[in-house]
Design brief:
Layout lengths: L1 E2 L2 E2 L3 H12 L6 H9 L4 H15 L6 E8 L2 E10 L4 H15 L1
Antiparallel strand pairs: 1-2, 3-4
Length: about 100
């Protein structure tokens, strides 16, 4: 819930991050704040979460889905794995995916 000592579950914090780190224009701040405070888009997000749970069997976090894309087309099946992973897991997966793009 905290990132760099800031509570990212608060609209004020997210607006600040948007302004300082993502370049959100001052004129866009009221719309961003309204969006955050009124949970605009929450139903769409929950639908996407449910879809991911079904499609990939997601039961916990972290969960990683990684696939190869050549232009606009996916190449092969994406990899999905749960839990903290050793860096070697990612290295092996990236090497295998890179081979599919050759």
């Amino acid at each position: 819930m905290y990132e760099c000592g800031e509570n990212v579950s608060l609209a004020d914090t997210l607006v600040k991050i948007g302004r300082e780190r993502l370049g959100v224009a001052e004129s866009e701040v009221p719309q961003l704040r309204m969006h955050l405070e009124n949970n605009v888009g929450a139903k769409v997000v929950m639908k996407e979460i449910q879809s991911g749970r079904k499609k990939y069997g997601i039961k916990g976090v972290p969960f990683f889905i990684v696939g190869a894309v050549d232009g606009q087309s996916s190449v092969g099946q994406p990899y999905g794995f749960s839990g903290a992973q050793d860096s070697s897991t990612f290295e092996e997966m990236f090497e295998e995916l890179a081979g599919k793009l050759e």
